[in-house]
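fyi for ur records
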Amino acid sequence: MSTDVPSSGGGVSGFAREHTLGVAGALSAVALGLVFAVVGGLVPSSVLPRAPTAVLDAIPTINALVSLAAIATIALGVRAARARDFEAHRRFMLASTGLFAAFLAMYLYRITLVGTTDFGGPAVVEGFVYLPLLAVHILLAIVCVPLVVYALTLAATRPITDLSDTAHKRVGRVAASLWIVSFALGVVVYALLYLVY
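which gave:
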């Protein structure tokens, strides 16, 4: 399968190529809007089928494992790019994106049906460790969405040979770094919430 796309033309791909920043911005706004709507309680739980309690209880652990897998695929994708193995880089970054989408879908599904989980540890740990870690994790996750979407939009609308003329490498480097930190902090938050306390 060729990774090249036409350098010009009409249709959706031509529009996305000519307006990459706008398309990435619109996709990011829709994605973040959905997340904020769910977290803000604007999506009623009655619109979703309810999974068994055991499944809902397993989602945080599954998401921690998904996060660890995503850390690995992002790191491998960065390594492949440095080795100029762009086909492997593409596969790893698409896998990372798929893992992130799965994480987000499960997280939002559980939030809609169950709500958030209260921290069960001491107030001092909650105030000085848990909440700051959670805040940084959430902030980085929000910042990563437009960066990742922009890097993906650039990659999806251009041949590999043209990506060096774009911001893909610079944006991708920042996005990958922040993405790894966000996933890692998410695992730490999970451990504090479900294992330690």
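The chain has one domain: 11-40+54-196. thats all i got for now
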